[in-house]
Amino acid sequence: MSGWGAILALALVLASQVAMAQKRNAKAKPPRVVVLDFEGDRRGALRTQVEAALKKTKQVELVPLKRYTAAAGKAGVRGAEMRSSEGVASVAPGLKVDAVVTANATGRVLVVRMLGARGQELWTKDVKLQKGRMSASDARRLAAGLATTAVSPPPVVEPPPAEPATPPAEPTEPATRPPESAPPPVATAPSTPPPEATPAPAQTPPPEGTPTKPAEPPEAVATPKPSEPLVAPTPIDDESHTSTSAIDPYATRAELEAQDRHRYPPLFRLFLGGTTTWRMYCARPGVSSCAAFDSRPEEQQVGDTVDFESGVPYLGLVGQLELMPLGRMENKFLRGLGLGVGYVRGYSETRVKVTTETGETPTRTVVATDTMLMASLLYRYYFNMGTESTPRLGFAGLKGGMLGRAFDVDDEARAPLTGSHRLHPSVGLEFSVPLRRWLRIEGGGQFFLNPQAGQSLTEDKGALELEVRELGEQVSSAGWSAELGVAGDFWGPLGYSARFRYTNVKDTFTGRGSKFGWEQGGVAQENHADILWGLTVSY
Q: Where is the signal peptide, in residue numbers (predicted)?
């Protein structure tokens, strides 16, 4: 019974020790690791693979690259120096980083190095590349090796001791540590390996013939010791750790390509959808605004006036295309150059009422078409509001080009109303702020450069001149537009967009017009309120 009791007690002691060790491991914080930019890594694809694979292991805490770069800049470490042992030793301790991962992609091989907080090399590994990327299995094994080395790093050993370079310090050490017997010289022998630095202490003991012989074995033992630590931190076998540690399956090639695609602006974006438009128009003689004429007493409201508005908001179709041919360039200042074109076509039922000296005409409903053409050059500066692994690109940009809008009334309606045709340059600003992958706030504004009426590439010149001659001899115009909306991606390259746009144009006429009361010209104002909604396809 006493033997079985001793065995049971021993088992309990061992179980308690294992439990205590597990508690200590559970309380221990994971090591902090930062993955630096890799040399020869185009677009950061390999670095993204390594960082994502390390995150999958759930064994280390990844430090953002931006934080390391900022700390390096404050320490005066820049460029390739950040990846050197000296640079790591000057930056990592301040950030409490335990390990730094660097790599160099040469041809079809990626040479990976892991450095400790003091700049010492902890682990190296060569990984084969296939079309500039690692296979999923190689990425898992590499992450397992890096994570295991970070969790259980090899012992820190100072490679070449710097003390022998200062001979004056060595004679003082034996004086401060008086030997009492033969063993102390054995302990001091490894600390002073060079024989030149200690000639005098070695000559004092010769009177005793026997002690000199045991002094040789310590030297023989001391010589392999400094060389052993250099071989001790051998690379850890990746295969053993991948087979025993539980790691989630690595991202597929499609997922990696999606991450790479979101890191850069899309090469093209197609928007197809519909429009909902409200249109208002007014013309008044001898004043600078329609409101100034309407505020006069009735006896002073002399002259022909025109008013029309959409009885109900009318619908149309819209198509827009944005091309960014330099979107995959590494130069962030050139990748934002692009081209945008658009076409809008709407149909409306418009209520028209004309007031003359003989009275008001009855309100008529006529069918009209609203056509809009856009072509502009784009320049956008893109910025990342997400993370390195899940980027969300926003931009602020400029655009300038030509804008045309034509409102044509059905000729068979016999309504006393001419159309409106404009073709003019425009310049403006635009922005996009991503809040989520599925939600962006987008908007902008444009200023129209002399958007006067009676300008078109397709209409008859006589009909275009009539738009001006009815109200005056000459016309000067000014206008602007502003828009705001939301957009986002909800599945792969597919997304949505919805915007509200308000457009205001004012025509000031001078000289005598053909309508009654327009001897001194007058003013015409045209406003559009558009809602553009639909789907987007981006790549």
A: 1-21
> Looking at residue 304, what is its pLDDT?
87
Cα 149 from Cα 130, distance rounded (Å): 25
Percent of the chain with pLDDT over 70: 70
**Mean pLDDT on 205-222:** 46
Average pLDDT estimate for 285-298: 91
CA 230, 233, 237: angle at the middle one, nearest 5?
Answer: 145
Collapsed DSSP state (helix, strand, coil) of residue 371: strand
Per the CATH hierarchy, to which homologous superfamily does domain 274-538 belong? OPCA outer membrane adhesin/invasin (2.40.128.100)
Q: Could you tell me what percentage of the chain is helix, strand and coil, using 3-state DSSP and rounding each to the nearest 5? A: 30, 40, 30
- How far, in Å, CA of 155 to CA of 235, rounded? 13
Could you give the C-alpha distances from 71 to 63, 65, 67, 88, 121, in angstroms and in order? 12, 10, 6, 11, 21
Write out the H or E segment, with its range, that includes residue 17. Answer: helix 2-27
Domain range list for the chain: 22-158+232-256, 274-538
Q: Give 307's pLDDT tier (boundaries 50, 70, 90).
A: confident
Kindly report the CATH number that applies to the domain delimited by 22-158+232-256: 3.40.50.10610
Which DSSP category does 130 fall into? B
Selection from 477, 395, 400 nearest residue 446 by Cα: 400
What is the spatial distance between Cα 346 and Cα 532, in angstroms, rounded to a whole number? 12
- Long-range contacts from 292-295, C-beta under 8 angstroms, 24+ separation: none
pLDDT value at 42 more than 80: no
**Mean pLDDT in the chain?**
78
Amino acid at 110: L
pLDDT higher than threshold 70 for residue 325: yes
